[in-house]
Specification:
- By secondary structure, the protein is an alpha/beta fold.
- The chain has one domain: NAD(P)-binding Rossmann-like Domain (Rossmann fold, 3-Layer(aba) Sandwich).
- The chain has eight helices and seven strands.
- A seven-stranded parallel sheet has the order 3-2-1-4-5-6-7, sandwiched between helices.
- Helix 1 packs across helix 8 and helix 4 packs parallel to helix 5.
- The chain is globular, with a radius of gyration of 17 Å.
- 40% of the residues are buried.
- InterPro entries: KR_dom, NAD(P)-bd_dom_sf, SDR_fam.
- GO terms for molecular function: oxidoreductase activity.
- Keywords: Oxidoreductase.
- It holds the Pfam family adh_short.
């Protein structure tokens, strides 16, 4: 049984990963920013009775005090992690001409600085060997309009991974990432897309080799591979799961 912490796991890819690890018999801890959403996710996960009870902890990774509290809670529990899944993030599109400093800094704080500081802090609570998996995006390698801040934030963490692997090698910690393609989650509605726009996106995705928009369950196998022993030889690896969108 592995101890696995997944950030931002109240919905979407993180929730789907938590459910999958739970069903495999692992001990899963999830984080969320909003107590009500966290409670809903825990209720859903823990009423399935298909694995160990999932623990939920409040943490906004953009707030350093929350990261310290999370670490303190894990320390008090005597928890040592086998895997840390850095999944939490935001997508708030803005055209370049309209991009504000506040929006840019907020995206970087949530998608880059927060996960980096979280990884730094929780590296002290990880086993040897241990795995960190960053949920990145195809935007690192493919340009989309109105995604400058989002693309930069994901690319920044990927840029740090090489040095992280070098410095964490003595602790037996490996750092790799998954780049999901366009995936049906709450992120579309949160970014401001209405139902018609989402339907149009789904129609566009029907033209990809996969023939459909991806779902969180499509991304989870890559996360599991990088989180568990099957990836012991992987360092700074990037696994793209995009249904052929980038071909």
């Amino acid at each position: 049984m592995k101890q696995i912490l997944i950030t931002g796991a109240t919905s979407g890819i993180g929730y789907s990963a938590a459910k999958s690890f739970q069903q495999l018999g692992h001990q899963v801890i999830i984080t969320g920013r909003r107590p009500e959403k966290l409670d809903q996710a825990l209720h859903s996960l823990n009423t399935t009775h298909t694995g160990n009870p999932v623990q939920g902890l409040i943490c906004d990774q953009a707030v350093p005090a929350d990261i310290e509290q999370l670490s303190a809670t894990l320390t008090a529990q005597g928890t040592h992690l086998d895997a840390l899944i850095l999944n939490a993030g935001i997508f708030e599109p803005q055209p370049f001409d309209a991009m504000t400093l506040d929006a840019l800094e907020h995206t970087m704080r949530v998608n880059f600085t927060g996960p980096l500081l979280l990884a730094q802090t929780l590296s002290q609570r990880m086993k040897n060997p241990g795995s960190m998996v960053f949920v990145s995006s195809i935007v690192v390698g493919k340009a989309f309009a109105s995604t400058i801040a989002y693309s930069a934030s994901k690319a920044a963490f990927e840029g740090a991974m090489g040095a992280m692997n070098v410095e964490l090698a003595d602790k037996g910690i490996r750092v790799n990432c998954v780049r999901p393609g366009v995936t049906a989650t709450e992120i579309q509605a949160k970014s401001g897309m209405d139902n018609d726009a989402i339907a149009g996106l789904q129609q566009a995705m029907s033209q990809t080799p996969a023939g459909r928009m991806l779902e969180p369950r499509d991304i989870v196998p890559a996360i599991k591979y990088l989180a568990l022993e099957s990836s012991l030889g992987a360092r700074n690896a990037t696994v793209t799961i995009d249904g052929g969108y980038c071909l």
